[in-house]
């Protein structure tokens, strides 16, 4: 599948101009927490770049991987049927990329691109076709609705989404019960969690006993009731929900500074923080029953075909989360489909179109534990048509693995620059992903050089790639202290959990970090528990017992069973909900704090909006769960401080853009060019410029076609970062400086 080495975009010169400034001034000024602690491993004999030796084709190398012996059957290993999912239709509209796709792979600039034609060709239908096909198969089409649930409204078709991986669904199923029907099984733990606090007097208007009294295992959704939300987009809100209404008290927004956490909740938060900071008694490795771990949201980025899915699939196997039996099954199925080299990628890429094409289409989400972290893993698509999905993943992430293809020509293709222009040759996604990741707040990056087996694990190749990539990563705002570098091979299992076994790699990488070691070297994100609740909703489903469950990452505040919450936008004015039960990182919990990835079962709260039940279809794409006394606001006009990326045509007032922020996506226009700023001092160098060119830092006003939830960056970083894209290219990235309308 190489799907062509296409993408776009930046000139080194542009980055030197633009991003260096951003680095020196912009980002550092925005960031209010200390630099990451992990240091890049010492250079190992950095030497001059040498031409890479001839090497076997990757596929050959992969097929020579030692066969794994048959293992005893794992009864838990069940392939779960995934419903058809909505995909962003705007992608389907990007017909112009198809042409680029089918003609790509032929030297998109950058040395060695030609050699990168590699073993997989872009000779299957474009991802756009996959999207269209998926759309044609889905919505209204979605057959099964739970008996008790009314049919969900026809789903909007343009949502990207975060999709629990099959493995995560399996974990969910196991946590939610032993497969027994009717929501029983593992409900007991959640019941205990919910019941234990249900009777507490919480005080304050915003919290009360859980309306339902009893908890429930969130389990996996009832068939046909899952709605995935990561992005809203044109038509989303209209199709998915009634016209947004502001919840109770929204018109007069209370300043965040007035917020004080409810005492009972604050006590629990403090106790959880103390438990988390207690030293680890013994390294618990991958067991999930150990002491509480810090959450880490990790996104895997990289150019198409860099080896992301294979690496993560094999890593999950090495961590004991994918059984031998499943691994064999994937190998068998992949081989039978003539895609033997993708066997490990199939652990995460389970949609038929992904398997057919070997391209990750959406963001697969799964979880695993390391010694230090409870990791939520987001495997983002590498194909440029799916950059919006990648943004949805990266917007939640605390750290990233950037996979770089070390095979001859592979790195060069992924790192190539576009020739610019609307119809110019696009470049590789290594640049765009790294720049977007940084702009979305990711400061910690482990660069994993894959496929070095194709060059006999030549250290020179590794050092050459590091030398080429480092200046670029610095130019887009990464600090060297936030970068780690390591070699690894997914299909061959080299340097994932254990040090490399192949002497050719072990010889020069002895003592260097493994992939898991690099993950454990990331610094945990500070939890923003001191702010009112915010949870952008990335997943909606109906549990077996009929409660609506919202999934997402808490970006502010904390929650416990009984907490009252509001949704913005709300399906009905003043509608409030009570948290019935919570799962954090897949396990029943009595508390969720900022930084946690959780699933929250909601019931109508008495006295809030007439107690009307929430239906999954009424949760608008881009919705955010909020503290009812300090809800987010819906905005249509706002001021951004942006850095203009590689635009071939200057940005003018009236420029159409697609806005990406947290899980929201909305169409809009740049309605005012307010000022060009000095990137270092932030001072206005030119008021009301007529246009903005690449590399410039500027204040602009943007008007969205429909209201969406945004926050000023100074209050909620994750809700205040925006990427402006158009025609499949990222024009600018920036932060929200003011909410205007
Ligand atoms: N020789 C070799 N091949 C590899 C290695 N890693 C991945 N591959 C192969 O490269 C191909 C692409 O791997 P994937 O894991 O699907 O790549 P990806 O980055 O997830 O691709 P997208 O999801 O489409 O962006 C597969 O055939 C893999 O077997 C490696 O370390 N060595």
UniProtKB/TrEMBL annotation:
GO terms for biological process: translation. One of its GO terms (cellular component) is cytoplasm. Residues 1-255, 270-291 are annotated as: Disordered. Residues 10-29 have a biased composition (Acidic residues). Residues 176-188, 196-206 have a biased composition (Gly residues). Residues 39-49, 57-84, 140-149, 207-224 have a biased composition (Low complexity). Pfam families: GTP-eEF1A_C (PF22594), GTP_EFTU (PF00009). Residues 293-533 form the Tr-type G domain. The keyword Protein biosynthesis applies. It catalyses: GTP + H2O = GDP + phosphate + H(+). Keywords: Cytoplasm, GTP-binding, Hydrolase, Nucleotide-binding, Protein biosynthesis. Transmembrane segments: none annotated. Belongs to the TRAFAC class translation factor GTPase superfamily. Classic translation factor GTPase family. EF-Tu/EF-1A subfamily. PANTHER family: TRANSLATION FACTOR. This is Tr-type G domain-containing protein. It comes from Gonium pectorale.
């Amino acid at each position: 599948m190489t799907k062509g080495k296409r993408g776009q975009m930046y000139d080194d010169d542009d980055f030197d101009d633009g991003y260096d400034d951003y680095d020196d001034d912009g980002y550092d000024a925005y960031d209010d927490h200390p630099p990451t602690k992990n240091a890049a491993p010492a250079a190992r004999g950095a030497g001059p770049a040498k031409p890479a030796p001839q090497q076997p084709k990757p596929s050959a190398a992969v097929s020579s991987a030692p066969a794994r012996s048959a293992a005893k059957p794992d009864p838990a290993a069940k392939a779960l049927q995934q419903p058809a999912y909505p995909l962003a239709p705007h992608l389907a509209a990007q017909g112009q990329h198809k042409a680029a796709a089918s003609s790509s792979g032929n030297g998109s600039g950058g040395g060695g691109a030609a050699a990168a034609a590699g073993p997989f060709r872009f000779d299957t239908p474009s991802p756009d076709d996959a999207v269209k096909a998926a759309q044609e198969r889905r919505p209204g089409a979605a057959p099964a609705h739970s008996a008790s649930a009314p049919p969900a409204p026809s789903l909007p078709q343009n949502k990207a989404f975060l999709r629990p991986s099959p493995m995560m669904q399996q974990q969910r199923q196991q946590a939610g019960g032993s497969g027994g029907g009717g929501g029983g099984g593992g409900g007991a733990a959640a019941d205990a969690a919910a019941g234990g606090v249900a009777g507490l007097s919480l005080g304050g208007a915003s919290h009360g006993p859980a309306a339902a009294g009893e908890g429930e295992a969130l389990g996996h959704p009832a068939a046909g009731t899952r709605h995935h939300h990561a992005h809203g987009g044109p038509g989303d809100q209209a199709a998915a929900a009634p016209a947004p209404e502001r919840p109770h008290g929204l018109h007069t927004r209370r300043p965040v500074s007035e917020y004080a956490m409810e005492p009972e909740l604050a006590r629990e938060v403090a106790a959880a923080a103390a438990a988390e900071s207690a030293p680890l008694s013994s390294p618990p490795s991958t067991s999930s029953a150990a002491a509480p771990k810090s959450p880490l949201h990790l996104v895997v980025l990289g150019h198409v075909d860099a080896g992301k899915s294979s690496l993560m699939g094999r890593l999950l196997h090495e961590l004991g989360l994918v059984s031998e039996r499943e691994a064999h099954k994937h190998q068998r199925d992949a081989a039978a489909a003539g895609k033997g080299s993708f066997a490990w990628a199939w652990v995460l890429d389970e949609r038929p179109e992904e398997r057919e094409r070997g391209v990750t289409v959406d963001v697969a989400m799964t979880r695993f534990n390391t010694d230090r972290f409870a990791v939520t893993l987001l495997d983002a698509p590498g194909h440029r048509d799916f950059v919006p999905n990648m943004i949805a993943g990266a917007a939640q992430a605390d750290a990233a693995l950037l996979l770089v293809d070390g095979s001859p020509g592979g790195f060069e293709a992924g790192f190539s620059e576009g020739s610019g222009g609307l119809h110019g040759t696009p470049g590789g996604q290594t640049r765009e992903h790294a720049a977007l990741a940084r702009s979305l707040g990711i400061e910690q990056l482990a660069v994993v050089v894959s496929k070095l087996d194709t060059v006999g694990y030549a250290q020179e190749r590794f050092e050459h790639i590091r030398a080429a990539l480092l200046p670029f990563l610095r130019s887009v705002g990464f600090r060297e202290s936030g970068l780690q570098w390591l070699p690894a091979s997914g299909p061959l299992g080299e340097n994932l959990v254990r040090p490399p076994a192949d002497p050719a790699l072990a010889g020069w990488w002895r003592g260097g970090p493994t992939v898991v070691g690099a993950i454990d070297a990331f610094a945990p994100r500070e939890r923003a528990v001191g702010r009112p609740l915010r949870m952008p909703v990335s997943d909606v489903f109906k549990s077996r017992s009929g409660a609506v469950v919202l999934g997402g990452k808490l970006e502010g505040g904390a929650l416990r069973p009984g907490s009252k919450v509001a949704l913005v936008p709300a399906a009905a004015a003043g509608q409030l909900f009570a948290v019935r039960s919570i799962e954090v990182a897949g396990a029943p919990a009595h508390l969720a704090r900022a930084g946690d990835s959780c699933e929250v079962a909601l019931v109508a709260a008495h006295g809030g909006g007439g107690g009307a039940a929430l239906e999954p279809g009424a949760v608008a794409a881009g919705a955010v769960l909020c503290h009812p006394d300090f809800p987010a606001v819906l905005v249509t006009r706002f001021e951004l401080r942006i850095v203009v990326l590689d635009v071939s045509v200057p940005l003018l007032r009236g420029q159409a853009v697609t806005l990406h922020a947290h899980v929201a996506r909305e169409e809009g226009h740049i309605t005012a060019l307010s000022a060009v700023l000095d990137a270092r001092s932030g001072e206005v160098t030119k008021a009301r410029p007529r246009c903005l060119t690449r590399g410039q830092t500027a204040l602009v006003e943007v008007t969205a076609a429909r209201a969406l939830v945004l926050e000023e960056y100074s209050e909620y970083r994750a809700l205040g970062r925006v990427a402006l894209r158009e025609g499949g290219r990222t024009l600018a990235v920036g932060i929200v400086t003011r909410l205007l309308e």
